[in-house]
Each structure stands twice: as C-alpha cells, then as structure tokens.
Amino acid sequence: MRVSVGGRLYVKPPYAIPSMSAINAIPHNGFSLASTFSGCGGSCLGFRWAGFRTLWASEFIAAARDTYRLNHPDVPVDARDIRTIPASEILDVTGLAPGDLDVLEGSPPCASFSTAGTRQAGWGEVRKYSETRQRTDDLFDEFARLVRELQPKVFVAENVLGLVRGAAKGYFLEILSGLRGCGYRVEAKGLEAQWLGVPQTRGRLIFVGVREDIGSTPVFPKPGAWQYSIRDACPWVASPKVAPRIEPEASMSGYAVGREWRRLSVGESSERYFSLVRSDPDKPCGTITQSGGNGHSASVAHPYECRKFSIAELRRLCGFPDDFRLPGTYAQQYERLGRAVPPPMMRAIAESIREGILCKL
Fold this sequence. Notes:
By secondary structure, the protein is of the alpha/beta class. The chain has helices spanning about 20-25, 40-50, 60-70, 85-95, 140-150, 170-180, 230-235, 255-265, 310-315, 330-340, 345-355; strands spanning about 1-5, 10, 30-35, 55-60, 75-80, 105, 125-130, 130-135, 155-160, 185-190, 205-210, 275-280, 300.
C-alpha cells in the first residue's frame, strides 16, 4: 500500500508482529539489558526484538510477574519490592561489574502522581495497586539509585506525558536533576506510539541517559511516515463471523456504558462517560488503559459490536505477538496489556540506542 506524506510516496508494509519464537530466534547483538518495573515484559520484548539479551528483571506484582515468566522463561525475575533490592545482588546475578551493563530500563509507577500535576492524598500510605498493596511514594528515586550504583552505559525510563504539564513540571525537573546527578547526560522526549508502528494513540514520556564518560548524547527514534489503523491490525473488525474468540466479559450490554455506546456514531467519543469511544476502524485505536477490562468502565470499544475489544484484538492493538501468553481473567489480561509499553515502540527506542550510541563505542 502506498501513502503520500509531504508530497513523497512511501510503501506502507502490512501490519505484522512476529511470533514469540521468531523474536526469540533473532541473533543477540552483544548488548545487555537489565529491567526494572518489568510488568508483563513489553519493554523487554521490544529490546529482545532489537537483539538485546535481558540478564535480569524485577516485578513486584505477582500476576504480572507470572506473565513475564511465561513469556521470558530464561530471564531471572526478582519478586521483591524494588526498595529492598541492592545493586550488588543484580551484579552478582548478571556476573557484571559496575559500568559493564549496557542498558538499564524501567517504568517507575506513576499512580502516585495525578495528571493534574498534584500528588494524591495519602502520599506515603500503603494503598491498593493492581492486585496487591504498595506504598505510594517516589519510585523514580529507586530507579535513580540503581542507575547511580550500577552505572549502566545507557538508561531508559518511561512515564506519562502528564509529567511535563502544569504543576507536574516541577516534579519532572526534580527527576531530571536527580538522574543527571548520577553522572549522565539526560534528555526526555514525548513519543507517540502510533508513529512507531503501534495501531494505538499512546503518548509516553521517555527519558534517555548516557553516562558522561561515554561522550555521546541521548538519541530517540524518528517518527515513521504512516500510522496503522484498527482495521490494519484486526482485519476482521467488520466481519464478526471470522473474528477470533470473544470473551463474554468483553460485553458492555447491561451496563450504562453499553447504552451510551449505542447512542454514539462510529468514531465518536462520549461527553458523558470519560474515555468511552466507539472506535473508528480506519484510525489507530485510542489509548488502552489498565482499567478497561471491567465491563462497566468507560474505555475504547469496538466500532460495530457493543463490547470491549477481545484479548486477541488487544494483543494486536498493543503490538504483542498473537502467541504472547496471558494467564488470568479477561480483566487481568486486559490490565497486563494496558500497563505495558508496546513492544514495537520500545523496539524503535532500543534500535536508536543500539545504532546511535552503543555501536559507536
């Protein structure tokens, strides 16, 4: 398919995500990765797709950790709270010395910081997070601690775009200063997943740091020339007879959001229920959030059927392989995908670091 961008014609390749076995068969590029706040492994999968070898990962949430282990069985996963993990133990497991690790990556949870730029009430208290309880304080400090003690050549941290808006910008500057104080050149940039091979409008703030002695500056991937639509990723959206299995829990019938969905036209968003969108099949999907798997919650929805997207559809819309294993209920699987960094997005970031920094050393 040819697309015209700025007067130039590009050949848009079909949307295709390799299988898990195909990604795992990609030759290692010789560069190492350690992962924090690893979730179900979306970031690690993106780095593996770019040829990196993950030597260590950590994930505190049991359900996410179980999913990670199913899909990355050769990676040791630390189950402890990140606050209790000494860098010396990571070095012992990986067999590396400080400064040897090529990339440290992580997505410190941002639940303690609202999109309005204010810390939530109860800062420092133990509260529900996913399927466990966690103290709501600053886990970016813990990521910075590991950067300081491990001294990787490069680090990548991911968070919400709201971190650079309004009152939150002061907190963002604190984070930037803290990371630079670890001995790194650090830049942060907002990246949009839909321009990096993902059929979903998902903006994220990406921090890239390069150790001062390396002499390079942070790099980021350039946006692509096209976007993929829901129809590109899930060509059956208008043909229910050939759609993959649809979980009963995906139905919105019987809920207020289902009645509202019926009032909407294709491509229209609800003014009454925040985040409820009757998706346009010829555009990227809206942002898939971790809470959308609850039948009563407002979220992106199927264009022609009164339901949420199925797990098979969500895998594709989030850039995961069809055979990526997801245990648990519909809501639990939805949460794993909604919290994850889309693998094609992280692959693009990993490739830019590989080519722009590490291969030049």
